[in-house]
Structures are given as C-alpha cells and as structure tokens.
Amino acid sequence: MEQATGGDTPMEEAQDGPKKRSVPAVTRAVAILRALGKSDEPMGVQALARELDLVPSTVLHILRVLTDEGLVAFDSRTKRYSVDVGILALARSAIQKNAFVAVIQPRLDALATEFGVTTIATQFTDPTHMVVVALSQVQLPFRLQVDLGSRFPAMISGTGRCFAAFNPMDPAELRARFDRLVWDHAPDYDRWQSEAAETRARGYAVDRGDYISGVTVTAVPFFDGAGRMVHSMVAIGITERVDAIGPDRLATAMMKVRDEAAGMLLPGGGA
C-alpha cells in the first residue's frame, strides 16, 4: 500500500543531470487519469485504490480536485468517476501544437486518397502503448474503431512488429507482452518473431489478417535522432484491395513519405 511521507524529499543529483524532485500528488493524479482512461466503465474510489495500490482517502481527495478542474466527471447516483470532456481541450491543444502531426497529416491524406486505404500515425506514449495522433479515413466496407486519441498496445499488429524489430527487449518480457495481445487470428509466436526479423531487414511490417480478419495492416517506423522508434505510420485496407495495389508498392510509397517527413522534422528541415 501507499507509504506515508513527511513531505517532498529531493532525490540525489545524478552525475549527468539536474536534481529531480518527487511530487507524489502529481504522480498519483496522472495514474488515476490513466486508469480511468483505460477502463471501459466508470470506476469507484475503492476500485481505483485497489488497482493503484493507494489509500482510498488519497484517491478521493485527488478525484475531487480533478472533478473541480473538469478533467473527471462524477456520477452522484452510482458514486463512480470517469474521464470528462476537459481532457479533450488539453488533448486537442497537444495535437495542434505537435510538429509531427503538422507534417504528417497532409501526407496521410494524400496516401489515403491515392491508394484508397485508411491511414493513421501513432506516437508511443510509454513503453507499452501507442496513441493515434493523426488519421485520414476513407469509406471502407467494415467498421474500424479508431479515432484521434485511440490507444493500442505497442506490440499489436504491424506497428507491433516494427516495435519488436527496432526496440531490443528482454526475451521473457517480450514473450509475456506478446501473450497478452488480443487478435482476431493470433499468430504463432515463432512466426511473429520471424516476421519481426523480416521487418528489421526490409524496413516495414505487414499484418495480413492477424489483427483484423480480412484486413491487411502495413506499418513503417519513424525514428528520433537517437535512433529510437517514436512514431509509426500505418495503412489499413481490405486484404483483397491491398493485394491488388501490391503490398511492396504501398510500403515503398509509405517509406518515401516517412523519409520526406523525417527530413522536415530534423533541425533546420523546415517544420
């Protein structure tokens, strides 16, 4: 359970960085918002306290502040909390001011129009999840539940193969995270690893009906200056249509767009 503290205590200064100060209230508030955001249903104080291993009174005090600020909504009938629309203003501002989104959005639109596929761009928010930060949708004969802000496991589908290919991970952790993924047709782990290795070699990934039955997902990675994968660009289309386009042709066009966008995002690149 949560440990009582006598106040904020500064951490020792790292040799290569400034002093960092622990702010437990902020950390707990962020954890509560994330838990509410992930939950399919509103949550009560006790449920949040159990999930986050916090004292219920602490959770209640933080929830009251978040409610007053419009970030959390309280249902007086059920005594449960959920994320409120105040979060949208923050999210919208973050996306509008995101240089990556400004550069990639018109390019997603052009790809979607040229190939008749839905295109999205994601950003990794932590080592385990990615969030959709830009998208361009076309009319497809199936329901694709994706919106700005949609959150997915980092290792799912095409982007997941890119993530596994370019982000070295402890083998035991890699397998454990793979086993928690939910697919329409879950690939065999050995095949999935083989496809991740192929992704590393050719620079893009293809999920052919594993994540969504009858749908092909093509993904290319974006890297930061340190060579870390921080974004992905994804094209989603009916497998029959992608086969007619040519998976290699689609992936080649996506990588060309990725390289152009990456060039603009470098210092002095014009973004």
SSE diagram, text form:
Elements (H helix, E strand, L loop, with lengths): L23 H15 L6 H8 L3 H13 L3 E4 L4 E4 L2 H11 L2 H17 L2 E9 L2 E8 L14 E3 L3 H10 L4 H9 L9 H14 L2 E4 L6 E9 L5 E10 H7 L1 H19 L6
Antiparallel strand pairs: 1-2, 3-4, 3-8, 4-5, 6-7, 7-8
Helical residue percent? 40-55%
Enumerate the spans where pLDDT stays under 50 for 5 or more consecutive residues: 1-17
- As a percent range, the share of strand residues is 15-25%
Number of strands: 8
User: What structural category do the secondary elements indicate?
Assistant: alpha+beta
3D structure, described in words:
The chain has 271 residues and is of the alpha+beta class. Helix content is 45%, strand content 19%. It has ten helices and eight strands. It has helices at residues 24-38, 45-52, 56-68, 86-96, 99-115, 157-166, 171-179, 189-202, 239-245, 247-265, and strands at 72-75, 80-83, 118-126, 129-136, 151-153, 205-208, 215-223, 229-238. The strands form two sheets. Strands 5-4-3-8-7-6 form a six-stranded antiparallel beta sheet, sandwiched between helices. A hairpin with a 5-residue loop joins strand 7 (215-223) and strand 8. Helix 2 crosses helix 3 and helix 6 packs across helix 8 (189-202). The longest helix is centred in the last third of the chain and has 19 residues, at 247-265. Residues 1-17 have low confidence and may be disordered.
